[in-house]
Design brief:
The complex is a heterotrimer of chains A (about 270), B (about 270) and C (about 270).
Chain A: H1 2-34, H2 46-57, H3 60-93, H4 95-108, H5 117-124, H6 128-152, H7 156-164, H8 169-207, H9 212-222, H10 225-254, H11 258-261
Chain B: H1 2-14, H2 16-45, H3 54-65, H4 68-101, H5 103-118, H6 124-132, H7 136-160, H8 164-172, H9 177-214, H10 220-229, H11 233-261, H12 263-273
Helix pairs in contact in B: 1-2, 3-11, 4-7, 4-9, 5-7, 6-7, 7-9, 9-10, 9-11, 10-11
Chain C: E1 6-19, E2 22-35, E3 39-43, H1 50-57, E4 65-70, E5 73-74, E6 82-85, H2 89-92, H3 99-104, H4 114-127, H5 143-156, E7 161-165, H6 173-190, E8 193-197, H7 201-207, E9 210-214, E10 219-226, H8 237-240, H9 242-260
Parallel strand pairs in C: 2-10, 3-8, 3-9, 6-7, 7-8
Antiparallel strand pairs in C: 1-2, 1-4, 4-5, 9-10
Helix pairs in contact in C: 4-5, 7-9
Classes of the chains: A mainly alpha (about 270), B mainly alpha (about 270), C alpha/beta (about 270).
């Protein structure tokens, strides 16, 4: 009884402090333009931004833009994940391939995907395809690298056990390799989802294909600072949502594995 | 396991050290070379003008970047990048340590930090531009505003998770506050901090490029966008190549620093794995 | 020896943990005194609050009631007069520091010249037989050697009493015997005062000059037993002495009684 009550008290305290922090931030934001520390033209009132958010949420055009961004995100993430799973498993399982691809991967991976924006624009113009190139390139590596780690992480004793009991290739893949790699894949997926969202919005800002990013860029060039801040808040909420959902999925898939893997510094 | 077995078989077959060096040389450069050849062949055969031959790109590279452009565009970009990264690390680690050590502050700020981390960094560019105008400071601030979050949050997490026995040891030997910070808290958090820095680096590079594409009349990002708008395809590719090299260079430097800073950590992990 | 001065005095020590599901009385009422130059072993059934007692002694925990006095002044927090050797050597040594760095760390805030500090570290490492390993990192050493480093750190700190919390619980039997002899040697040659907490009955009898047998929780001192074995001890002959067997049987009985919750039995006569 009392265990749960103190624990509940602690969670309550934590939640309360969090709310206080959030409220404090909003108040400070409101006060800065009120006392003219920063011109309201550059930092609009919170209340104005909130009103704008409410207004936009009733506007179908806004939701259509949001839908466009999430569609690019979804397609990009799906294609990248699928490609990374297939290629990663093959490369991870065959030592010769792993060695042969190492330098190429180490060169291609750090290339900032935004460097490819001009190329994508040349090839596809101001279209979603151009954005997809960037999204897929960036999120592919997140999953790919994790898959290779995961496939290589198969415990040697477990592997010997499987071999000594004469498990076939297919059995070993489905009972040993995939379960070992699964948590890594989920981690990769979480990272890729965040990266894909960043690049979906970035691509829209720079390329100009319709979506949240282009809304931000439009508000900026039109000098609509209230709109700009409102859309930035929307992207933050969107990012938060994506993080929460994928962290939840990751934790679900990790639950049985956590103790074995221990803390992992990433 | 597998690598071990395969290396043993190579030694048996491969006839001494010379063979092994040749093999690893082939492994390292075989695929890149192959890809270049395929690219070159494809480029000569196809009519797609967006994929010039590797040699053309290479020529464009030497022409475009070696010379005054290096001083005018590349160095300022790298300077801002370095400044932004350095400031992000200092701010992130300092604030992260304070927040990580004070539970009430951590609980107060947690939802806010989660939110700020979730904002896609490039959308901060217009905001910072609005607040600071189009200046060099703005570009550095943009880099900081994106790269500081992973460093800050990882530092908080690392500092918070300091081992209880280690803390008790420091307490029982009356290690002073400052020594505790230097010899216990920061080293214990260093694996997490380095993980944060690694994420911060790639964010910083992205922001450097985009802030220049957006609002600049010089810099690497600006140049590449300029070449694209003027259909100078080979030059544009050479810019992409240069950015790739910068990325690889950053990754290399980070790898070296990390191996030095976290030597104990990798050693410890290797021991506990065996 | 009656002329020995009192070093550590514990009087009516009581510790209650305020936990969520009611208060837990870990230590009921513990009193004992320890003289300078003694080696006192503390044994008790598992879960009897040995670690709690030790943390109260070391000033890491505040007792609910009662008094811990060191050299006549009350212990209110960690003091330079005591050095603790923890059971979890892997977590008590800092993996990012070398062996020397670990031993040196607690000396940094002592007012010593660099040369004095170096000398203390070298001397302590020599005392535990690790003079050669100063530049290694702790994790490069075996478990037993790591615990030697922790002991060296305590020696270099020059405490008046060394407090050891089940220090050899996590090492193998061979190593354990070596480490026990090291503790005996430090005690005899350097005249170190040591409080040694263990759950191992043989170990307590082999090492101690006195054994405090604790009752089960809430804990009091069930028996304060003098170990009248010769001070020169070694693993084979000492453990083969009939008196050793008598004493260990007695302690064993006491602990069985403690587990059942019975009280004092007469100490074994000669």
């Amino acid at each position: 009884m009392r265990v749960s009550s103190t624990r509940r008290l602690r969670t309550l305290r934590k939640g309360l402090l969090g709310v206080v922090g959030l409220a404090g931030f909003l108040v400070v934001w409101q006060l800065i333009p009120t006392f003219d520390l920063i011109n309201p033209q550059y930092l609009p009132y919170v209340t104005d931004v909130a009103a704008r958010l409410a207004e936009e949420s009733r506007d179908l055009a806004f939701w259509r833009r949001l839908g466009a961004t999430m569609t690019s995100w979804g397609i990009g993430l799906a294609v990248a994940t699928f490609a990374a799973l297939v290629l990663g498993t093959i490369v991870g399982l065959v030592p010769v391939l792993r060695r042969a691809t190492h330098t190429t991967v180490e060169f291609l991976r750090p290339i900032p995907s935004v460097a490819l924006i001009p190329l994508a624009v040349l090839m596809f113009g101001i279209q979603r395809e151009a954005a997809l190139v960037i999204i897929i390139y960036a999120s592919f590596w997140q999953v790919f690298v994790q898959v290779i780690y995961g496939v290589a992480d198969v415990d040697s004793v477990a592997r010997d056990t499987a071999r000594s009991f004469g498990l076939t290739h297919r059995e070993r893949l489905s009972h040993l390799v995939l379960p070992t790699a699964l948590p890594y894949v989920m981690t990769g997926l979480r990272l890729a989802a965040a990266v894909a969202l960043i690049l979906a919005i970035t691509a829209e800002m720079v390329i100009g294909n319709p979506g949240l990013g282009s809304l931000i860029e439009l508000s900026r060039s039109a000098g609509d600072s209230v709109g700009l801040y409102a859309f930035v808040v929307v992207t933050g909420l969107l990012g938060l949502l994506v993080n929460l959902v994928f962290r939840f999925i990751e934790r679900r898939s990790l639950s049985w594995h956590q103790s074995i893997r221990g803390e992992e510094a990433r | 396991m597998t690598t071990q077995t395969s290396s043993i078989t190579t030694t048996r077959r491969g006839g001494g050290a010379g063979g092994r060096i040749l093999a690893s040389f082939l492994y390292a450069l075989g695929l890149p070379f192959l890809l270049l050849v395929v690219w070159a062949v494809a480029a000569t055969r196809s009519t797609n003008r967006f994929f010039p031959e590797p040699l053309t790109i290479f020529d464009a590279f030497t022409e475009t970047w070696i010379g005054p452009a290096f001083v005018e565009d590349v160095l300022p970009s790298l300077y801002r990048l370095g400044l932004g990264i350095g400031a992000s690390i200092v701010i992130g680690v300092a604030l992260g340590t304070v927040i990580g050590l004070l539970q009430w502050l951590r609980e107060l700020l947690e939802p806010l930090l989660e939110f700020f981390r979730a904002i896609p960094p490039p959308v901060l560019i217009p905001v910072v531009m609005l607040l600071l105008g189009i200046t060099d400071t703005m570009k550095v601030v943009v880099i900081i505003s994106g790269a500081v979050w992973p460093i800050l949050l990882n530092t908080i997490e690392g500092v918070r998770a300091t081992d209880s026995v280690m803390t008790e040891t420091a307490r029982s030997f009356q290690v002073t506050w400052w020594e505790r910070l230097r010899f216990l808290v920061l080293p214990a958090a260093s694996p997490r901090i380095m993980a944060g820095v690694r994420q911060g680096l790639s964010v910083a590079l992205i922001l450097m490029v985009i802030s220049e594409m957006f609002a600049s009349s010089s810099g690497l990002g600006y140049r590449i966008a300029y070449f694209q708008r003027n259909y100078q395809v080979a030059e544009m590719w050479s810019g992409v190549l240069l950015l790739g090299l910068v990325g690889v260079f950053l990754a290399l430097v980070f790898g070296l620093v990390e191996r030095r800073v976290l030597r104990w950590y990798h050693g410890l992990r290797e021991v506990s794995r065996a | 020896m009656p002329d020995r001065s009192t070093l550590l005095r514990v009087e009516h020590l009581r510790k209650v943990y305020e936990s969520a599901n009611g208060d837990v009385e870990a230590i009921g009422d513990i009193s004992f005194t320890m003289h300078a130059g003694e080696l006192v072993c503390i044994v008790g059934p598992s879960g009897c609050g040995k670690t709690t007692l030790l943390k109260c002694l070391a000033g890491l925990l505040r007792p609910t009631d009662g008094l811990v006095e060191m050299d006549g002044s009350p212990v209110t927090g960690p003091s330079p007069a005591m050095a603790v050797v923890f059971q979890e050597y892997g977590r008590s040594l800092y993996p990012w520091l070398t062996v020397r760095g670990n031993v040196e760390l607690p000396l940094r805030h002592k007012k010593l010249t660099r040369a004095e500090r170096e000398k203390l570290v070298t001397d302590a490492l020599e005392a535990v037989g690790l003079a050669h390993a100063g530049r290694s990192h702790p994790w490069q050493l075996s478990g037993g050697m790591q615990q030697r480093v922790a002991i060296a750190r305590a020696i270099a700190y020059q405490p008046e009493v060394m407090i050891m919390d089940e220090p050899f619980a996590a090492v193998d039997a061979q190593t354990r015997a070596d480490l026990e002899d090291l503790v005996r040697e430090l005690h005899v040659t350097r005249n170190m005062s040591i409080v040694f907490v263990t759950h191992d009955i043989d170990e307590s009898v082999y090492l101690g000059e006195r054994v405090l047998v604790l009752s089960k929780s809430p804990t009091w001192v069930q028996e304060d037993l003098a170990i009248d074995l010769p001070s020169e001890r070694d693993q084979i002959t000492t453990r083969a002495l009939p008196r050793f067997t008598e004493l260990r049987t007695h302690v064993y009985d006491q602990i069985q009684r403690a587990k059942r919750g019975e009280t004092v039995a007469a100490p074994p006569g000669r």
